[in-house]
Design brief:
By secondary structure, this protein is of the alpha/beta class. 40% of the residues lie in helices and 18% in strands. The chain has 2 domains: 161 residues, Response regulator (Rossmann fold); 137 residues, Rossmann fold (3-Layer(aba) Sandwich), CATH 3.40.50. The protein is elongated and about 65 Å long. The structure holds alpha-L-arabinofuranose.
Length: 319
């Protein structure tokens, strides 16, 4: 448990500080329970590394749990963190709904919670201290804006297929919504098929194979992450078509493999979603454990990449 000079555990609890007890009394090391979604993508692997390295650098003891993309595992992990009386809980919710009960348990135990990467849809924002992560709706809009510009001179229908992320997750819901908001302004853009690929390469390939069989006339693939786009590229090549030419591809993340495919001309445009949330997460954790005020929302700064920009960025890309 964190013990601050001149501040009693009682006072700390009343100002929203940690439940405490994660480490021996008198030890001022913060203990964080972190429930990760899983290891579904290159993005996730980079995010896990960032959180683990940053905790070490910040002197925070990390209790890390991998939920293997299952909400029930995350709920179990959070309950176990509460039982262990960690100072702060951070988690990236696999889906948006169904968190109120366990978050109330954390609140009753006076353990502050930080949402990282993904949001929950609970109307009670007092259940968590802050939400650190990307603006996924804006990411979808950026993908849509690129498409509108790319096809501005097209006269016929532009047939789009969409590979959605995990059903019910914030990035899947929001990236879909942001993209639809932009393209709906012009009726020539038609989403002819949209299905989940669960953010994985294997599922992206499988669903794209089915799309290609059902729709011989696909012009564009919008993939909610690079891993699904990379799986889809294998399916497109397997069907004897050229990704990036016969079928234009726009995706989200900008992980190294995605950037390589962009530089190679197999993907046409990538919207960045940064997984390097660790340093900001540790700063926020230190503040909430001390009972300091933090912003309710911290939005990650991100950019976009064309094929030329990917070639330039690749040599120094961190993830
Ligand atoms: O929540 C972030 C998303 O989750 C990333 O875009 C995707 O690759 C990951 O699995």
């Amino acid at each position: 448990m964190l013990v601050l000079a001149g501040v009693t555990a009682m006072a700390m609890a009343s100002c929203g500080g940690g439940g405490g007890g994660g480490t021996a009394a008198g030890d001022d090391k913060i203990t964080m329970g972190f429930s990760q979604v899983g290891a579904e993508s290159g993005w996730r692997t980079a995010n896990t590394k960032s959180v683990q390295e940053s905790a070490k650098a910040a002197g925070i003891e990390l209790k890390f749990s991998d939920a293997q993309q299952k909400q029930e595992n995350q709920i179990k992990a959070i309950r176990s963190f509460i039982q262990q009386r960690v100072d702060v809980i951070a988690f990236s919710p696999v889906v948006e709904s169904g968190w109120d009960t366990v978050l109330k348990e954390a609140k009753n135990a006076k353990i502050p919670v930080i949402l990282t990467d993904r949001a929950v849809d609970s109307p009670d924002t007092s259940l968590y201290k802050t939400f650190l992560g990307s603006d996924f709706v804006e990411e979808g809009r950026k993908a849509g804006k690129w498409l509108v510009e790319e096809f501005k001179d097209a006269t016929g229908t532009v047939n789009i297929v969409e590979l959605q992320g995990t059903t019910g997750s914030a990035p899947a819901n929001d990236r879909k919504a942001g993209f639809a908001e932009v393209i709906q302004a012009d009726p020539k853009f038609k989403v002819i098929a949209s299905q989940t690929g669960d953010f994985t390469r294997a599922k992206g390939k499988e669903v794209m194979e089915a799309f290609l069989k059902a729709h011989p006339d696909i012009d564009v693939l919008y993939a909610h992450n690079d891993d699904m786009a990379l799986g889809a590229i294998e399916a497109i090549e397997g069907a004897g078509k050229t990704p990036g030419k016969d079928i234009k591809i726009v995706s989200v993340d900008a992980v190294k493999d995605g950037m390589q495919a962009l530089a190679d001309g197999k993907i046409n445009f990538i919207v960045e979603c940064s997984p390097l949330l660790g340093p900001q997460l540790m700063d926020l954790a230190k503040k909430v454990v001390k009972g300091e005020q933090v912003p309710a929302r911290v939005v990650t700064e991100e950019t976009t990449f064309t094929q030329e920009q990917a070639k330039q960025a690749l040599p120094s890309r961190q993830y």
